[in-house]
Amino acid sequence: MRLIYTVLLSVIAAQLAGCAAHHKPAPRPPIKIVGVVSLLPDELSYQKYGVTVFNNETVTRPVGDAFNAAARAGAESAIKIGDRTVVQESVDAPKMARDMNNFPGTLDNKFDQISDDLQTMIAKDKLDAVVVVVETFDRPNGVNGVRVVVRAGMGTINKVEVMPHIAVFAVDKNLKRLGFQEVRASYPIDRPEGQQWTYTLADNLDSATLEKVNKLMEVALQSAVDQAVGSVSF
User: Which helix (H) or strand (E) holds 34?
Assistant: First the structure.
């Protein structure tokens, strides 16, 4: 009787294993060609926080395409580890960023707002996936992700930090989300040649200081995007 019971269990187990194998989903098609889109700002925001709101200041300075170029380089570095072809997509970054941010919702679902643009890219370049780099944001508090934060006391500047806060999402050619990753970091920075930070924000932003800040931000962004894309599962 025990022998019959053992045989029956073996038969049932084999049948269940066969059914599981039969219903196993088909493997995902390999991702070989990946488009990269960066929607970072073309200006850098310097935000000073004083003892009270009356001491706060915000100043912006143009950076052109430098931050997007750094982000695209970081994405390409991470993607090519998998022996994939990278297509750097040329887009109207400010417009696409506005299209994403003009609607409510969490950041990881914002790509729905630019789905038409993504589909156009996928069809044009025969992409298997698209990676999009965006800055994080806190709309109620007017806080951008990519910014310089200046923390002030009573007539003094206590700390200045470069903050390359970005997010990356990836979708496949059917716009199915493959992954989402945020990277938040901060790096203290001094002015060149030992100059002190002065209390009035705009007075600090000479060409040498701007160059130093921008270069640190570019390096930090490239590293952050490399890290974020490397964490997304293709």
Answer: strand 33-38
Kindly write down the DSSP assignment for every residue of 115-160, as one continuous string: HHHHHHHHHHHT-SEEEEEEE-EEGGGTEESEEEEEEE-SSSEEEE
**d(C-alpha 165, C-alpha 61), whole Å:** 18
pTM for the model stands at 0.84
Distance CA 169, CA 106 (A): 12
The Cβ of residue 159 has, within 10 Å, a number of other Cβ atoms equal to 13
* Lookup: tokens for 145: 């992700």
What's the Cα-to-Cα distance from 189 to each of 75, 93, 163, 167, 196, rounded to whole Å? Answer: 25, 28, 11, 23, 11
pLDDT along the chain (234 residues), means of 10: 50 52 59 94 94 92 96 94 89 87 73 89 96 83 84 94 94 92 94 94 96 98 95 80
Q: Could you give the 3-state DSSP secondary structure of residue 114?
A: helix
